[in-house]
């Protein structure tokens, strides 16, 4: 159904704004994504929003028309509103011309097919949604299967994480599990668990990576718990030529993943 | 001088809070950095704050005592305040126990000694202070000389950039220049300018890097202007196995820098 909304106090606007809050997203089982490019990527990956929200009064774009047609054909809602209201919904001063409400995906680790990719990313207690979205984006770039979130991570369906993922939220699988669940699942099949570590580690450039390779990084300030590092099949070190003893978590995951990609394709 | 401040309306508190604003930082020629570890790193690199702000009523720490003694000996101010006020100053809910006001460094590109390091990072119109701080942190890790900011970048002295740099703001040189200034300076001596690009590029794993190597990344949404890519000595591509055609800017800089580091040390 297509309808126009121009009032800030409209219940649909309140509903949409509430989706910036994790509690409400969880209750509704949906999340917000914004931008024509991202929504087009989603559409091409088979993900249509159940609700499409567009700013009126802009020049039409063929991709936006295609998106609207598909959402309408699938029985979804199309909302036309003002740029100001769209800005309020997405929390951005210069909002994209369009946003969509998507159903959350199945995030159970048991639903992952580990044979679907040679590389998987694993994040433990990652607190920054920007880092999380950046890891999804890197995962897409290295052809990873997805991102597995261990313990208490930031919400991958937050507006910030979805934005930083640049669309990879729709191309990468996302799973959430406790360490015990993940580790139990991992050991039921093939899988090499790798982490950057200072404990009994080998140089990352000469390590023997094997598919499916699970590249794990830890919390931004604490790093990985010792028990998790010990459980890894391979611990690697990266050069640290300066004063710092660690990289940004998303950066470490990327440098390591690109090395794994090169090794596995060699 | 050591003094205690407990009122939010104290002029010093207002001054400190104003430093979260770029305009005020620029006028005063100073910036804020927070955290005992970061301030200790700064001290060990020869940077003492002209004003040290500590939350009272906490357990003393030998490193904090050492910091206070050095600041006092250098004629700096030591302010003891409440955790609430410190929180207001740094804009963080759970503030670090200490913050410092530092003089801004010389950021002229002409003051850089290119022979001091084999790798330099260059960012063009980078808008996200977190990305900028992360690049500084990566620069420290790969032993880079510093980060050169081209055109209209985020402020490297913002609280967010300093925080994300994890202390690298004190170990890396930071320079700011227009493209013309930078390019003119670069061509006055040795220096290989490298960027990730899709134009006439070679695979990043087999490229011939040469020191001093200047690794350049562009704006988060626009990438590098064509003219800047054309001016590079070397254009390299990184594998993109998914739908996305680019990496996060700080991630691209890191993956490329680690490759350059490995090549130059081989």
From TrEMBL, chains A, B:
Q: Which SMART domains match?
A: SpoU_sub_bind
A Pfam family assignment: SpoU_methylase
Q: Keywords in UniProt for this one? A: Methyltransferase, Transferase
Q: Which GO terms describe its cellular component?
A: cytoplasm
Q: Which domain of life is it from?
A: Bacteria
List the Gene Ontology MF annotations in alphabetical order.
Answer: RNA binding; RNA methyltransferase activity
Write down the InterPro entries for this protein, in alphabetical order.
Answer: Alpha/beta_knot_MTases (IPR029028), MRM3-like_sub_bind (IPR053888), Ribosomal_eL30-like_sf (IPR029064), rRNA_Methyltransferase (IPR051259), SpoU_MeTrfase (IPR001537), SpoU_subst-bd (IPR013123), tRNA_m1G_MTases_N (IPR029026)
One of this protein's GO BP terms? Answer: RNA processing
* Matches recorded under CDD domains: SpoU-like_rRNA-MTase
Which Gene3D superfamilies has this protein been placed in?
3.30.1330.30, 3.40.1280.10
Family, as annotated: Belongs to the class IV-like SAM-binding methyltransferase superfamily. RNA methyltransferase TrmH family.
The protein here is known as: RNA methyltransferase
Species this chain originates from: Aurantiacibacter gangjinensis
């Amino acid at each position: 159904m297509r309808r126009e909304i121009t009032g800030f106090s409209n219940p649909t606007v309140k509903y949409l704004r509430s989706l910036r809050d994790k509690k409400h997203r969880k209750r509704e089982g949906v999340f917000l994504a914004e931008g024509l490019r991202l929504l087009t990527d989603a559409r091409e990956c088979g993900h249509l929003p159940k609700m499409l929200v567009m700013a009126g009064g802009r020049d039409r774009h063929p991709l936006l028309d295609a998106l609207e047609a598909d959402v309408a054909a699938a029985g979804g809602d199309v909302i036309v509103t003002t740029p100001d209201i769209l800005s309020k919904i997405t929390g951005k001063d210069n909002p994209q011309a369009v946003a969509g409400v998507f159903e959350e995906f199945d995030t159970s680790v048991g639903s992952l097919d580990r044979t679907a990719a040679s590389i998987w990313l694993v994040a433990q207690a990652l607190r920054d949604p920007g880092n999380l979205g950046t890891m999804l984006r890197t995962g897409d770039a290295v052809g990873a299967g997805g991102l597995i979130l261990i313990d208490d991570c930031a919400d991958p369906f937050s507006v910030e994480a979805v934005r930083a993922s640049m669309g990879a939220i729709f191309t990468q699988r996302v799973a959430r599990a406790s360490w015990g669940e993940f580790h139990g699942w991992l050991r039921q099949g093939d899988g090499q668990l790798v982490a950057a570590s200072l404990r009994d580690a080998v140089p990352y450039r000469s390590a023997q990576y094997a598919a499916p390779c699970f590249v794990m990084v830890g919390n931004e300030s604490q790093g990985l718990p010792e028990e998790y590092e010990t459980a890894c099949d391979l611990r690697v070190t990266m050069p640290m030529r300066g004063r710092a003893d660690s990289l940004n978590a998303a950066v470490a995951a990327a440098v390591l993943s690109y090395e794994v990609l090169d090794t596995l394709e060699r």
